[in-house]
Every structure is written in C-alpha cells, then in structure tokens.
Amino acid sequence: VFAECLQGIASAASAAGHAIAPLTTDYRVGHEEQAVASLLAGNVDGMILVVSDPAESTALQRLQALGHPYVLCYNRHPEHPCVSVDGEQAVAALVSRLVQLGHRHITMVSGQRAASDRAQQRCRGYAAGMRAAGLSAAPVLEVPFLEPSQHTLIEHLRSPNRPTALIGSNDLLALRCLRAARLAGLSVPGQLSVVGFDGIAVGEDLSLRLSSITQPNAELGRQSVEWLLQALSEGLPPPPSGSRSLAHGFRVGETCAPPENPLAP
Predict the structure, then answer these.
(1) What is the mean pLDDT of residues 49-55?
(2) Is 63 helix (H, G, I), strand (E, B) or coil?
(3) In this predicted model, what pLDDT tens digit does every residue of 206-245 receive, in sequence order?
(4) What is the CA radius of gyration of the chain?
(5) Rounded to the nearest 10 degrees, how much is the dihedral formed by the CA atoms of 97, 212, 220, 117?
(6) CA-to-CA distance for 75 and 193, rounded, in angstroms?
(7) Centroid of chain to Cα 15
(8) Alpha helices in the chain (DSSP H)
(9) In a 3-state reduction of DSSP, which class is residue 251?
(10) Which of 202, 198, 196 lies closest to 177 in space, CA to CA?
(11) 211-214 and 249-251 as β-strands: parallel, antiparallel, unpaired?
C-alpha cells in the first residue's frame, strides 16, 4: 500500500523538480514526533504524513502552531487537510454486498484500533452496514497485528456460532484469516468468505485471489503532492476545507461467495 503511494509521491515530486525524504515511524506516536522534529530541523518545504490518530497527534499540533504546510494522506479528519478514501463508507458498502450474497453472520477483524484511525473508521463502517441491513453487529475481533499466533482467529472459527464471512480491516489481516480458516478446517469461499481492505498486489498472486476493497494508492500520493505544491506556491498551508476524498473500488477475487445456508437467520 505505502510503496505504491510513495511511488506516486516520488513521481509527482520529481516531475515538479522536488526531492523527497521518506521516514517511517511504525505507527508509534513518539516516533511521529521525532520524525516531524527531524524534518523541521532539515528545513523541508512541506510534509505529507500518515499518522496514527490525527485527533490526538502532538506532531500535527506542532505543525499547526508553526503554520508549517502539511497534508495528511490516508488519514481523514475535519480539522486537518487530508487526501483519503472514505473507509467507513467503503466497509458499509461491503457489508451490503455480503448481505446481498446471503451472509447474515459477518465478523470484522481488526488490528489494535487505538493505533490507527483507519481501523476505527472501517469498524464504524461495519457497524453502520450491519445496522442498515437490520442485523446485529458482532463484537469486533481485535487481533494484535504483530502477534504470530492464529489462536484467537482459529478459536473464533471453531465456535458453534461461527461467522460465514470475515472482513479484515486490511489485507494483511485478511491473509491471516485465510490461514486461520485452513487451520480450522474450513474451505474458502465454500464455508467461509474472506474480504480484505487495500487491494495489495500480493493478493492477486494467491492460489485464490483475495477479494478486497481497493484504494487508488498511487493517486492518493500524487494528489497529496499536487495539493501541497499548490499551497506552497500560494504561500499558505493547505486548508482542511479543501480535503479530497477519492473513490474506492472492489476487487472481486475468489475468496468471497454466497454462504452454504444463505437464508440462515
């Protein structure tokens, strides 16, 4: 995901005669603050950022106080300039798609929501989609992203009231769901549908192509650069009111199908 976005950023910046200085923070708030401080010390013209939670980010508060130009990419918040996809709406639409296929028992699988505003938004979309379908949302199954064990997922899939469909808040979690299904003895998509979010390229290379909500990652990067450079030319930080929302897509793949008992309550 970020590799494609970074390529879009690099290409757009290079075409405009600018160089980029990428930094990673591993979604750690302290590292975000250090990264912004480092970039400010380097006198960069502007920043394109992905932060854990813009509502609580002290790094963003510092940039706002300084009036330093920045654009958030992937994040979505009314008080910050953002280029993003509406993850909440995308997952709500996916739930509707699954319900139309006959699924009634759908579970959302997420990483640690406190570490990502995108995960929070996608989980809200799941709840909204279930409400719109007149169904009760199951508790979100939170799986620590770096935990190698599949125990939590396997246990859930072996329960008497197991879901017929799992939605991963990102594609890497969806891949873990596929492995957990195999270890639990469930066939995909016959006994369990699995859908991810991001549309990562590796999902195309599996024995079963991963069904996934897709994002225009390179375009997100390109438009972030375009907006930031426009603001720099005008001498003003990009305004939150100009935030851009790009359309999501859906890769049909081969891991999503009607359930074995489509009309089960």
Answers:
(1) 94
(2) helix
(3) 889 999 999 999 999 999 999 999 999 999 999 999 999 9
(4) 20
(5) 80
(6) 28
(7) 28
(8) 2-15, 29-41, 58-66, 87-101, 117-132, 151-157, 171-183, 217-234
(9) strand
(10) 196
(11) antiparallel
- All domains of the chain, ordered by start, with CATH? 2-85+216-247 (3.40.50.2300), 87-214 (3.40.50.2300)
Task: Give the C-alpha distances (Å, rounded to integers) separating 44 from 36, 68, 80, 131, 263.
Answer: 10, 10, 19, 46, 58
**Which token pair is 199?**
């549309």
CA distances from 221 to 120, 154, 186, 246 (A): 22, 37, 38, 11
Q: What is the mean pLDDT of residues 43-66?
A: 95
Q: Please name every residue paired with 166 in a beta bridge, in sequence order, or none if there are none.
A: 107, 194
Q: Which two tokens stand for residue 58?
A: 């002290």
- Which tokens go with 170? 């990102």
Task: Kindly state the helix (H) or strand (E) to which residue 214 belongs, with its residue range.
Answer: strand 211-214
* Strands of 82-85's sheet in order across: 47-49, 70-73, 82-85, 244-246
